[in-house]
Amino acid sequence: MGNETEPGTCYVVHVKDRWTSLLDDDTTLHMVMDEIHAFISNSTTTHPEVTEEKDLLEYHRDNDDFRVCDKHDVRRVEFTPAILTTNKTPSPPSDTYFLKLFFGCIVFCFVSVTFLHYVYVNKTPKEKGKTTEDETVAANTVWNITDSPDEHEIPVLMSFVNADNSNSLQMKFKTCMFSMVKLSSAPIVLYVAGDKISQGIAESIVAPLDKKKVRLVTLDVDALGREMEGLLHTMQHHFSYKGGSYYSHALFFLSIAMHKLAPPTLRRLIMLDADLQFKADIKHLFDLFEKFEPSNLVGIGYEFSPVYRNVLWKYRNEHPGTRLGGPKPDGLPGFNSGVLLLDLEKMRASALYNSLLDAVVMKEMSEKYFFQGHLGDQDFYTLVSFEHEDMFYVLPCTWNRQLCQWWRDKGIQDVFDDYFSCDGPINIYHGNCNAPFPSD
Hints:
By secondary structure, the protein is α/β, with parallel strands linked by helices. The protein folds into 3 domains: 76 residues, no CATH class; 36 residues; 290 residues, Spore Coat Polysaccharide Biosynthesis Protein SpsA, Chain A. The protein has 19 helices and 14 strands. Strand 13, helix 19 and strand 14 form a beta-alpha-beta unit. Helix 7 packs across helix 8 and helix 10 runs parallel beside helix 17. This is Xyloside xylosyltransferase 1.
């Protein structure tokens, strides 16, 4: 990292050149924070006394600082994230820019409030207290019973939001869809959970595909989020950096509550990330449900990076020789939720699984393993697997061959390939952290 730590010193890591104000997505932000975390946790290996600091796992955003601990003798460390130095350095916005933006917001708010007030006062008393029939339907109907798959269709759900702001996301979705439909020997019913604009984009991408091979059903992601509001609060607290972060959005926790959200006629479901490329028939993936043991509720593949080795650094220091966070085949490296098989029927019937959704239970488990995640539902499944490993069917690595190698040069080169290796013909490539797919 280029910085040396000292024992017993509390650090406020300052990101050089106001980098954080220029980050355009929280995926990059969480990578920066992983760098800082690895920098500090590596320091504790050299200086054990540093672990006496209040909480090395909590970072607080404050004027572009990430507060690493909570002592009076604070030392300031200048820090340039490696993830950003590979890109061209952008120029920071000027003070004039922010002043114009501030006054523009004031004018916009004034005009908006004036307009809304005018509309409201011109309503009749009856209209002011009335909810239209369409609004009621939108609020209460997320998933129609008629949207369930027939006996021959393979049910697949993908999240697709803010697509109008990302040509890259649209291309990823298109690559995934075209490769999946082309190779499928069975018809697919595709559920797309997204905002209205993204739903329209998804419809335009799917439109050229053979209607006999794919049927599109759109779901309102905000309505789904409202239906899981209580659970969402619990999960956000333990499995995202902050309330507004990329991985705190409702869509990153949908799979955990899907057995409650989907109609009872939907018994099994495949959930996929958009950044996938199929190399095999999705029916063969769906057939893996038949390999589930009676105790298996969720099919999920291992994580191909040592991210959970890093998250669990404190637990691993206190429990030498633990399997948790260790590489396959003997360790439990944690899970990656880019490809999921959900046995919704079993999830609904499992008293154990549903008890794990309780806020108190999650708090106790998180504290036991010193676990503060930041990757949404896969953090939940990883944490649960520490005590209920038999709840999961581990997918063959070839069905979620992740390509991200961000962790390769983060000081653990000697073990990286133990996590990253995967032998055999690949069925699905997963281009996580914007990794490119191999050329044919």
